[in-house]
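Inverse folding, one chain.
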C-alpha cells in the first residue's frame, strides 16, 4: 500500500490508499481548472509526479510495516466474501446492457462534458434553460480524471468505477468492523 502513515494494517493501508487516489484525482482537476491549466498532459503529469513523490517520500520510511496474507489461514467466510466480490466485479456488466440508468444519466453526461471540454462548466448547457450547476463536482471530476488517465469511455469506464468502489467498500467495511471490535469471522460476515 502507498499509504504508510502510522501503524495501520494492510487492510487500512489499502483503503486509505484508494481513498487518497480518488481525492488526488478530484483535487488535481479542480486546482488545474482554477489555474486555467487543465488539459490532458498537465493532468497526467501532475498525477504521476504526485504519485512518484509520495512513493519516494515513504519508501525509506522505517516504520513501514506490512503483513503477508497467507491464503491457507483464510476462514471460510473470507473465501465466500472474496468470491462474491470477484463475482460482482467481473460479472455485473453481463447483466446490464448499458452504463446509463435513470439514476446516473445526469452524472455521466456532466462527467463526459468535463472530460471533453477540459473545464468545469458554470452552467449545465444540456439542461433546460441552462441551469447553474448546483451539484458537488466530486464525482464528475473523479469520473473525468479516470477517463483522462485510462482512455476508457462509457461502459468500460463505468465498470472500472464500480470495481474501484466495490473494492473500497469491501476494505472500508472490514476497517469499520475491526475498529468496532468485531472478531475476524464477523467482520467478513458484515460484508457478505
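Residues assigned per position:
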Amino acid at each position: 500500500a502507498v499509504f504508510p502513515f502510522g501503524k495501520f494494517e494492510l487492510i487500512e493501508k489499502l483503503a486509505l490508499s484508494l481513498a487518497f487516489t480518488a481525492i488526488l484525482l478530484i483535487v488535481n482537476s479542480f486546482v488545474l481548472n482554477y489555474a486555467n491549466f487543465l488539459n490532458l498532459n498537465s493532468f497526467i503529469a501532475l498525477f504521476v509526479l504526485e504519485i512518484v513523490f509520495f512513493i519516494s517520500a515513504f519508501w525509506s520510511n522505517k516504520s513501514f510495516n506490512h503483513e503477508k496474507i497467507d491464503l491457507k489461514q483464510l476462514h471460510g467466510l473470507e473465501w465466500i466474501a472474496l468470491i462474491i466480490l470477484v463475482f460482482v466485479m467481473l460479472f455485473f456488466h453481463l447483466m446490464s446492457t448499458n452504463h446509463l440508468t435513470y439514476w446516473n444519466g445526469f452524472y455521466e453526461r456532466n462527467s463526459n462534458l468535463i472530460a471533453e471540454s477540459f473545464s468545469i462548466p458554470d452552467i449545465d448547457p444540456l439542461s433546460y434553460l441552462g441551469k447553474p450547476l448546483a451539484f458537488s463536482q466530486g464525482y464528475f471530476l473523479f469520473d473525468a480524471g479516470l477517463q483522462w488517465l485510462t482512455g476508457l469511455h462509457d461502459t468500460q469506464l463505468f465498470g472500472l468505477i464500480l470495481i474501484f468502489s466495490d473494492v473500497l467498500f469491501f476494505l472500508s467495511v472490514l476497517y469499520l468492523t475491526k475498529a468496532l471490535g468485531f472478531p475476524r469471522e464477523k467482520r467478513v460476515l458484515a460484508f457478505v
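The helical segments are 10-34, 40-59, 76-95, 105-117, 138-150, 154-179, 184-191. DSSP finds seven helices and no strands in the chain.
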